[in-house]
Structures are given as C-alpha cells and as structure tokens.
C-alpha cells in the first residue's frame, strides 16, 4: 500500500478530513459537522468521524475493503485531558489505519502555522485554548474546559457577553452602548427586552456565536463598551501565550506564536496581541494561521511517517491561503 495519512481536524462546530499521500498530495477531503465528544458523546463522535472518513476514502477511489491509511492524525476539540485522548484513541484505533495519534486540535493549529511545530498556538473559536511545544519536545497546555478551568473568551462567551451588555445598557444598569441598536437589528425587535422574552420562551433559539462578529463590528466603530471586551480578549490571549512561553523557557527566544479560530481571523486581534506580548517576549513572532488546521493535522501525520520535506510544500500549495486581514 502506498503510504497515506488520514488527517482529521475535529472542531466544536465542524470537522475536516483529508487523505494525503506521503508525497503531500491531497487525494480527497470532506467537511462535516462538529463532533466533539464533550458535546455529543464518544459514541456519536466515533460515528460521525467514521462516516466522514469512509466518504473521504470513497472520493479517493479506495475499495471499501482496502486499508484507508498507514497513519491517522486526529486532532480534536474535546481531547483536552489525557484520559480523553486515551478514550478517543481506544475508540478510533484500528478503524482506518495501522497507527493513530489523537491529540487536541490546538496542536494541529500550531503545526499549520509553523515549519516544525515548535512555538505556541492560541485558538479562539467557539472556545479558547492554548498549547506550547519546545524544540526538545516539552509541552505546556491548559485544560480548556470552560469556566471550571478558568477559561475566558471564545465566540460563545463573547456573544453572550454582547447580549448581557446590551440588556444592562437598555435597562439602566450598564453604560450606553451601540450594542443595543446592533442586537435589536439582529433579532428584528423594537427592544432588547423583547429579544430576551423571545429567548426565554423559546420563540428564538439562543445562539451566541453570530453576536460575536457584531461585538467586533461595534468595537471597530469606536464603541467604548464593546472595545473593552475586545481589549479583555487581547489581554487573555496575551496571558495564555505568555504563560506557555514562560513555562517552556521561551520568553527570550525567537519563537512563533500562532493565532487561529473564527474569532481572531479577519480581526485586528493579532496586531494588538503582538504589541502587548512584546513587553515580555520581545522576539516572539505573532501571526494568524493562513491555512486550515487540517493541514496541520496532515503535517503532523507526515512528520510521523518521516516524509520528505518536499511533501510539506506540496501539501501547503494545495490549499488557498486563508484571509487573515
């Protein structure tokens, strides 16, 4: 069998699967729904991943009886603790390949944004997380389990914060903010109180994620209340990256700090983080990842197979650069 890598980037809101040969050629790829075991359970995660992988194999022209890959590199949201990685490895081992590595999806982001997987990555999508990897293989990471593990940030959190601030501005408990007008337009109501009532009685499903871009838009237009939330996010990302750099002894090194996730892509967060982080890590290079994290998962798989360095260039060239402006 030609050596192949099965790469899985499993986020909270979507899953990307790619089948790549050892030369870095993309044989097939599929996107599907998120299947974090923390959200849907381990059995359902396995079912979703298996369905997407089988579809990827079909698109690559593989026989149903043929081994899909030599190695699976699965980097998944919901693989936050060692036990979760162990449980997922046990659930997925032997399904598609001879060997498998399961890790947190932030490691794939780090590899996607670096040439060697060394540095720090902070993802801010539905949630927020950070990992660091030193050149000698030492790692630093956070549990990233939400409020119970000290997290602050992520699209869900920020969207809920935008509604909270708008409610309090309208009823007099908070400062005036343009978030009121923005959220009234979003919900198509005459008042934020009307929106709250509709949410409470289930007439409208509360999905905080669309409110996050509204928060950033209002902040860009100069609203002080919204700007403070964005500033707090910059502070949190800087803090996460700084702690990982310090714990790994990298504060004085020329090291990459990779940012990714829907909340930071297309915003000015990276620029502010670079300015903030320069005080403690002056040589750090802050950048937003410009290829999908599934590329990082595939690269980690190619690393495991000791693929030729040309495979990385070929794989990266197969993907259109993400817009990071």
UniProtKB/TrEMBL annotation:
Sample GO molecular function, one term: kinase activity
Q: Where is the ATPase BadF/BadG/BcrA/BcrD type domain?
A: 8-301
Q: Which UniProt keywords apply?
A: Kinase, Transferase
Write down the superkingdom of origin.
Bacteria
The question of whether Acetylation is a record keyword is answered with no
- Show the SUPFAM superfamilies listed in the entry: Actin-like ATPase domain
- Which InterPro entries is this protein grouped with? ATPase_BadF, ATPase_NBD, Euk-type_GlcNAc_Kinase
Could you tell me what this protein is called?
Answer: N-acetylglucosamine kinase-like BadF-type ATPase
Per the UniProt record, the lineage of the source organism begins with: Bacteria, Bacillati, Actinomycetota, Actinomycetes, Pseudonocardiales
